[in-house]
Structures are given as C-alpha cells and as structure tokens.
Design goal:
Layout: H1 13-22, H2 38-48, H3 58-64
Length: 65
C-alpha cells in the first residue's frame, strides 16, 4: 500500500473524495493548521520582549551559530 499526499482546491474536495471512495481508496483528510505551535509562540513573545539578537550581516549571523 502507498500513501499519497494530494493538494486539492477547496471547491473540488468533495468531488475528489467521492471519486477516490468509489475506487475503494481510503481517504483521510489532513487539515493544515495555521496556528503557531508553542515553540513559535514562545519565540515571538521573546522577540516582542526585546530579547532578540540583531546582526549586521548574514556572515555575522552564520558565525554566531
């Protein structure tokens, strides 16, 4: 069995799901979350609090890691 990820326009989702089910394909809908996870929220709060680092160049940034 193979797993395929297919991106379908919102207005065609029902049609594609019905077609795949007719073919006997198992359909699982994976919703894409637009909400940031806890790590991202913590990083955003850190920046808002002024705790971020600033670099004058890409080289300076890369040398810091």
């Amino acid at each position: 069995m193979e797993t395929l990820e297919i991106k379908v326009p919102d207005n065609k989702t029902a049609l594609v799901k019905a077609y795949l089910k007719e073919l006997g394909v198992i359909v699982k809908v994976k919703k894409v979350s637009k909400e940031p996870n806890a790590e991202t929220i913590a990083a955003m709060n850190e920046l808002k609090a002024g705790k971020g680092k600033k670099f004058n160049s890409v080289d300076e940034l890369l040398n810091s890691i």
